[in-house]
Design a protein that fits this description.
The complex is a heterodimer of chains A (427) and B (291). With 427 residues, chain A is α/β, with parallel strands linked by helices. Chain A contains 13 helices and 15 strands. In chain A, the strands form three sheets. Chain A has a seven-stranded mixed sheet with strand order 8-7-9-10-11-14-15, sandwiched between helices. Chain A has a six-stranded mixed sheet with strand order 2-3-1-4-5-6, with helices on both faces. Chain B has one domain. The chains are: A alpha/beta (427), B mainly alpha (291).
């Protein structure tokens, strides 16, 4: 009996000790010592955490972003690792599948930061997931660089630790309008041009609309917005909005849509025998899926704009990037790999420039970073006035009847000449 | 006036697709009193089957209708035989059936992710963007065909339910299960047949959807919700009511653009649902039995 009485007492003592230890741990700063503010010492290994939608609805994009992150880390390790204050430190990427689920993206980020104590974070894909996950990084004061969140709403919250390599979708609209403006100045398009804007009711669509609206307002004498309608994702019938566009006799048909809505709407557009001097569906139109589902004739002369295109890849950093992706993954890179690769490269460059794994120093370095880049502007920085979101022009492409989609704008990156007004409308 | 007429024709064509989408759900609910949450999954699976038949065997989607009907009839029989028949009947089994069939849907969706990834797929035939001119306006040939198939399905289903022994048995079981047992109708077999038929109709809807829209493993969720709105609008268990419910939803969605922003047009259907549930819980056309 004595023994049994003594045992609970000792157990209670152990529990008390454990409780005190836990309390002490809880009161301690949440930052890991490995990369915390007091880390003067250079560690033997830098661990970067990340989650991506490797399964679920965004698995296609997630898989491509994974390739970009992995390539950035592999190239760094191939040279012996990141140069931190003269010492080469290997980098490990700890990447988990968030299954395209917001709650999981948040929980896994929390786990990677607090339990696995990763030093830095590379973000997930799609605006909704990045928006949710970036809050965790901000709360834990850990540098978070992402290549998959474009909405300005992510960067408009005053967060200090969030950086993104995807330029705002507003820039997509603006870059397209700049090319259209050139064509109008050359007398090829109506002046003033009547603009129909149809945008999906998401932050992506809202940013697109803002880009067009701002441009039209700034050039009020040249552009008149005659239709401004949003639509719900996965629409089944666009006859009503298309009818509005037809009734308004628009010259420019400017739409922002994801692939399923692009296919449904454009099929109805073609069936209704509509035609406009300029047709765009934002980023849609130049991909193989569009050609397969709508036919070459159906997508001829559609304008599209993306953050990066492999046609940029014939010199300098781009050539190296394209060649490495082809060698490692056996496929041509798309913008997904490019922006995620740049996110990884920017983070590793910032660590090296900071000469430390101190999170605050790396964050400060990221905020003032300005490095040569594969992105269209040739430079990558995270301007403070944009909340840490990179800003650069998109590359505008146009589908041509020969099956190509050359870059037609900006002029210095062009690989072909654009056509306007849409020749398909004649006759 | 011309624009109104164009929109009215578009609404009728949309209604055809909506009706095809809701027949299966309405039939199963009308007889078994089960909301088949796997309905969306069946629509998605059928879209993938049609896509596979088209890409691998070069089989035109409309020629694949008999195959789709048979395959999904058998799938329906299997789901009923392996799972649904073990559920308690009537309101006692309502929650279990929701959970069970929702589980079936989740399994189907995740299987599709495994087999086909999350990529959007679409079927392009020679006539995908072909059009037909009606009263000076151009309409998608594909939508006209979908409308035609939906009308044929409506008539066939109506004739089956009113002219055949098994159709009458289905209606009788929908009316009063206990009396059917007394007069010697094999109720279990009627349930099995109804579930198979409802699933085959959902398969038909998936096939028609695949000719009009892009799809991925998440496809089917909004189709399920709209089907539910339609069967409530039309009166639970009424086939003609379903067609009328589909018409009301389609017209409300298409013409609401004159009143609300177009992104709210899908919400119009749900507002209608709430209004009808409050004012006429039996649906606009009353609580009728099938047929």
């Amino acid at each position: 009996m004595d023994g049994t009485e003594r045992q609970p007492r000792s157990a209670r003592l152990c529990a008390l000790v454990a409780l005190v230890t836990l309390a002490a741990a809880a009161c301690a700063p949440s930052q890991s010592n490995r990369g915390g503010t007091d880390s003067g010492a250079v560690p033997d290994k830098i661990v970067i955490g990340s989650t991506l939608p490797l399964t679920g609805s965004e698995s296609k994009a997630g898989g491509r972003l994974k390739q970009g992150y992995e390539l950035a880390v592999e190239l760094e390790n191939r040279d012996g690792g990141v140069d931190v204050g003269g010492k080469k430190v290997k980098v490990e990427l700890k990447l988990l599948d968030d299954t395209t689920d917001q709650a999981k993206a948040v929980n896994l980020a929390q786990r990677l930061i607090t339990q696995d104590k990763v030093d830095f974070f590379l973000g997930t894909y799609s605006t909704a997931l990045v928006e949710a996950q970036s809050t965790v990084a901000e709360q834990n004061k850990i540098p978070y660089v992402n290549g998959g969140g474009a909405a300005t709403s992510i960067y408009g919250k005053g967060y200090k630790w969030i950086f993104g390599t995807l330029a705002p979708v507003e820039n997509l609209a603006t870059t397209e309008m700049e090319w259209i403006n050139q064509q109008q100045s050359d007398g090829k398009l109506a002046k003033p041009a009547k603009v129909a804007i149809l945008w999906e009711n998401t932050s992506h669509g809202k940013d697109f609309r803002k880009g067009i609206q701002d441009f039209a307002t700034a050039h009020a004498a040249d552009y008149k917005v005659v239709v401004d309608e949003s639509f719900e994702l996965d629409g089944k019938d666009f006859s009503a909005v298309l009818s509005k566009v037809r009734g308004a006799k628009a010259d420019l048909f400017m739409v922002d849509a994801h692939l399923p809505d692009f296919i449904t709407m454009h099929r109805q557009y073609l069936s209704a025998k509509m035609c406009h001097q300029i047709i765009t569906y934002g980023a849609r139109g130049s991909e193989a899926d569009a050609r397969e589902t709508l036919g070459q004739e159906g997508i001829n002369y559609i304008l599209s704009a993306v953050w990066w295109n492999k046609q940029l890849g014939d010199k300098g950093l781009n050539q190296e990037f394209v060649s490495e992706v082809k060698t490692k993954f056996g496929a041509e890179p798309e913008w997904y790999q490019a922006t995620s690769y740049e996110a990884g490269r920017a983070l590793l460059t910032a660590i090296s420039k900071a000469g430390s794994v101190d999170k605050q120093k790396v964050r400060d370095t990221l905020s003032s970073l300005d490095i040569p880049s594969i992105l269209p502007s040739g430079r990558l920085s995270f301007p403070q006035d944009k909340g840490g979101q990179a800003s650069y022009p998109f590359v505008v492409q146009q589908n041509l009847p020969d099956g190509t989609a050359p870059i037609i704008y900006p002029a210095e990156l062009a690989t072909g000449k654009g056509v306007s007004p849409n020749p398909a409308c004649k006759g | 006036m011309g624009e109104v007429l164009t929109l009215a024709v578009s609404a009728v064509l949309l209604a055809g697709f909506y009706a095809a989408m809701a027949y299966g759900l309405g039939l199963i609910y009308g007889v078994l009193r089960i909301v088949n949450l796997a309905h969306g999954g069946i629509i998605m699976a059928s879209a993938y089957l049609t896509w596979q038949l088209f890409t691998k065997l070069d089989l035109d989607p409309y020629l694949a209708i008999p195959i789709t009907l048979v395959v999904f009839f058998l799938v329906g029989l299997a789901i009923y035989w392996c799972l649904v028949r073990f559920l308690p009947r009537g309101s006692a089994g309502a929650v279990q059936s929701l959970l069970l069939l929702f589980g079936v849907w989740l399994i189907m969706r995740n299987l599709a992710y495994l087999l086909f990834t999350g990529n959007d797929q679409a079927i392009r035939t020679r006539y995908s963007t072909a059009s037909v001119s009606i009263l000076g306006a151009s309409y998608s040939l594909n939508r006209l065909v979908v409308f035609g198939v939906s009308m044929v399905a409506l008539i066939a289903l109506h004739l089956f339910l009113t002219r055949t022994y098994w159709g009458k048995a289905i209606r009788a079981v929908g009316q009063n299960r206990d009396s059917c047992t007394l007069v010697g109708i094999d109720v279990e077999r009627v349930y099995l047949l109804t579930f198979g038929l409802g699933t085959a109709l959902a398969g038909l809807a998936g096939l028609l959807a695949s000719t009009l829209f892009a799809f991925n493993p998440s496809f089917g969720a909004s189709e399920l919700l709209k089907s539910f709105v339609i069967i409530v609008l039309g009166g639970l268990g009424s086939v003609v009511g379903i067609a009328l419910g589909a018409g009301i939803l389609a017209f409300a969605e298409v013409f609401s653009i004159y009143v609300v922003p177009s992104y709210l047009t899908s919400a119009v259907g749900f507002v209608l649902l709430v209004v009808v549930l409050v004012l006429r819980p039996g649906g606009l056309f009353g609580q009728r039995v099938l047929g």
